[in-house]
Amino acid sequence: MAQTVTVIGSYNVGLFLNGKILPQPGETIIADKFYESGGGKGSNQAVAASKMGAKARFIGRVGGDNYGKDAFAMYDRLGICRDLIAVDNTIHTGISVILVDENGQNLISVVPGANYNLSKADIDASLEAMRDSEIVGFQLENNPEIVAYGLEKVSGMGVKTLLDPAPASPLPEKLYQHIYCIKPNEHEAKVLTGIHVDGFDSACEAGKWFLDRGVKVAIITLGELGAVLVTKDGGKLFKTPKVTAVDTTGAGDCFSGALMAGLAKGQSIEDAIIFANHAAALSVTKCGVIESIPSLEEVEAFMKEASK
Question: Which CATH number applies to 4-24+32-306: 3.50.20.10, 3.40.1000.20, 3.40.50.2300, 3.40.1190.20?
Fold first, then answer.
């Protein structure tokens, strides 16, 4: 079985400001700490998949600036294939500013930069290389038209696709038939379906909405409550392990990357969700995004301890 996870998506350098509270509109807050780190939903998911033991490939665009060079150095350090990342000298690398309070809650603002120049030609040039993928992941931090094109092309090759629909925006209904697995949180599910999701029953309702439009597997994440799997066989809740959250930034990306890694290594969808739940739970116990993604060994030890 192929064990490659390919992620087509965004790279943003993350500029983190940690303080006691988050500012309100018009308010200035003095933060306690600043640091810089590689980010972007697509890149984060590729990093998570790699750290969870899959062979990972990332496809996207960065600027011809120092931030882009930093991205390549990070992928090389982590053993992620970056041969299909384009360097765009017409614009800057994507930038995200993340404010985090003492409870781990965050506010994030993103300027996509080179990410929005990802093109159909980039997708076409990558198709042959993606045939060995067990699953290809997408998000919505690139041009939505290009994301839709990629989903259709990859699905047309018979390769499974996962869409993490963030930041959420309504999608063309014809696109759902090209999505094997969709993984929105409760807010994103509401934006896409119009259904207010606040627990198991409403998550099942939203999941069925996706299935009715052609998606094979819907996973609605509910934060600390857990994740709801919805398939043609019905819905099932997978509870989140109890941890003390320090920084929730990137937890959803860690979940998606771990989920894809689990599937690439032959796990059932149920086992892959349990694996992803534990990985994401561990990630919120540390500050940062890629810095907070645990190792495979840490996740396996956590799962073993939690099963006692």
Answer: 3.40.1190.20
Given this model, what pLDDT does residue 1 score? 43
101, 212, 253, 271: the catalytic one is 253
* Mean pLDDT in residue range 254-283: 97
The pLDDT tens digits of the residues spanning 122-160 come to: 999 999 999 999 999 999 999 999 999 999 999 999 999
Contact 158, 135 (CB under 8 A): no
Cα–Cα distance for residue pair 12/256, rounded to 1 Å: 17
DSSP string, 130-151: GGGEEEEEE-SSS-HHHHHHHH
Distance between CA atoms of 195 and 30, rounded to whole angstroms? 38
Check if 253 is active-site.
Answer: yes
Query: CA 73, 76, 78, 81 torsion: positive or negative?
Result: positive
